[in-house]
Write a structure and sequence with these properties.
Strands 3, 5, 6, 9, 10, 17 and 18 form a 7-stranded mixed β-sheet that branches. Strands 13-12-11-14-15-16 form a 6-stranded parallel β-sheet, with helices on both faces. A 3-stranded antiparallel β-sheet has the order 2-1-4, with no helix packed on it. Helix content is 29%, strand content 25%. The two termini are 13 Å apart. It is α/β, with parallel strands linked by helices and 342 residues long. The chain is globular. The model has no long low-confidence stretch (mean pLDDT 98). Strand 11, helix 6 and strand 12 form a beta-alpha-beta unit. The protein has 2 domains: 177 residues, Alpha-Beta Complex (Quinone Oxidoreductase, Chain A, domain 1), CATH 3.90.180; 134 residues, Rossmann fold. The protein binds nicotinamide-adenine-dinucleotide and zinc ion. Nicotinamide-adenine-dinucleotide binds next to helix 6 and helix 9.
């Protein structure tokens, strides 16, 4: 089968013929229909510091996908060929304290699809059945293809109650865009997206942000004044990984507010802990999705009118993977999809 492979240490990816994955007794074999390009894939393509320590080539990359089951292992009874599914990309150990307690998202032995094991940028991918999500009828394939990052957005956006609250989304990349839509859907009052990129500010408004701000031009204090806010943002969703942006957000939070931090910084970020103490703030790190409560909530919200499709701006065939990666890296894009069925 064809797959997009990091063949050896160094920049670049190759579309290659690779052996079909083995299907173990607890596994599900999936024919990939559509995939989404994540920032992680861009890091692996570019071969930065993180990638060179995390990836052991040769490795089939990619973890955002939707596809159709073609085969199941002998232990698998409730998934069948033809089912439309996506995969939870964090494969957990099943034996640690948290896994045993049903808190799989807290597993410290997580293996990443397309990072630590062969991934989904391929004609076929294999996953343990415990990582496979059966899509509900009525979920469109393009939204299904990005359930993984949509799950990051939902897990972050629902970390603190947002009904009637004023929300600041820091960074309107694909995940921030979807988080803004979720916050609005879940009943926030103001959903302010802070984003330096004008293309993405525009997308944020289309996704349901009530206001957008260019952090280089307008301070958050000014935004608060304009909106008639007096106490600061109740909920912050940090989705930029940017140190200055995180500190600015922290300085503009209401007493008792919560900050959910998804953005991955490149370095340590010093913060004003005094502010956290005296203003009684809660900072919460978010990694991945809750298995499978987040997936359930995603499905319910899509069925009750949430539309994440405006976040998808580009579609390519997998054969044009170079153009697809270029579009994803350009910043003049939301989510970029590759089709593997052509
Ligand atoms: P992205 O890089 O496309 O989005 C980040 C956005 O932040 C960009 O649009 C960028 O212009 C914006 N930004 C940069 N400086 C800013 C500033 N000063 N103020 C406001 N915005 C600023 O990434 P994404 O795919 O949307 O992911 C968002 C973040 O979440 C990234 O840091 C990514 O690495 C991280 N991530 C974390 C997890 C997790 O499980 N914790 C999973 C996936 C992605
Ligand atoms: Zn575990």
């Amino acid at each position: 089968m064809l797959a997009l492979v990091k063949v050896a240490p160094g920049p670049g990816l190759e579309l290659r013929d690779v052996p079909m994955p083995d299907v173990g007794i607890n596994d599900v074999l999936i024919r990939v229909h559509k995939t989404g390009i994540c920032g992680t894939d861009l890091h692996i393509d570019a071969w930065d510091n993180w990638a060179s320590t995390a990836i052991r080539p040769p490795m089939v990359i990619g973890h955002e996908f939707v596809g159709e089951i073609v085969d199941v292992g002998s232990n698998v009874s409730d998934f069948h060929p033809g089912d439309l599914v996506s995969g939870e990309g964090h494969v957990t150990c099943g034996r640690c304290r948290h896994c045993m307690a049903g808190q799989r998202h807290l597993c410290a032995n997580t293996v990443g699809l397309g990072v630590n094991r062969d991934g989904a940028f391929a004609e076929q991918v294999v996953l343990p059945v415990t990582n496979v999500w059966h899509h509900w009828p009525g979920i469109d394939e393009e939204s299904a293809a990005i359930f993984d990052p949509f799950g990051n957005a939902v897990h972050t956006a629902l970390s603190f109650p947002v009904l009637g609250e004023d929300v600041l989304v820091v960074g309107a990349g694909p995940i921030g865009l979807m988080a803004a839509a979720v916050a609005r859907h879940a009943g926030a009052r103001f959903v302010v997206a802070s984003e330096p990129n004008p293309f993405r500010r525009d997308l944020a408004l289309r996704m349901g942000a009530t206001h957008v701000v260019d952090p280089a031009a307008t301070s958050l204090a000014e935004v608060q004044r304009k909106l008639g806010m007096v106490e600061g943002f109740d909920v912050v969703m940090e989705m930029s990984g940017n140190a200055t942006a995180l500190r600015d957000a922290l300085a503009n939070m209401a007493h008792g507010g919560g900050m959910a931090i998804l953005g991955i910084p490149t370095d340590e970020i010093p913060i004003d802990v005094g502010k956290v103490v005296f203003n009684q703030l809660t900072l919460r790190g978010i990694y991945g999705r809750e298995m499978f409560e987040t997936w359930y909530k995603m499905s319910v919200m899509l069925r009750s009118g949430l539309d994440i499709r405006p976040a998808i701006t580009h579609r390519f065939s997998y054969r044009d993977h170079e153009a697809a990666f270029e579009a994803a890296a350009s910043g003049e894009s939301g989510k970029v999809l590759m089709d593997w069925t052509e």
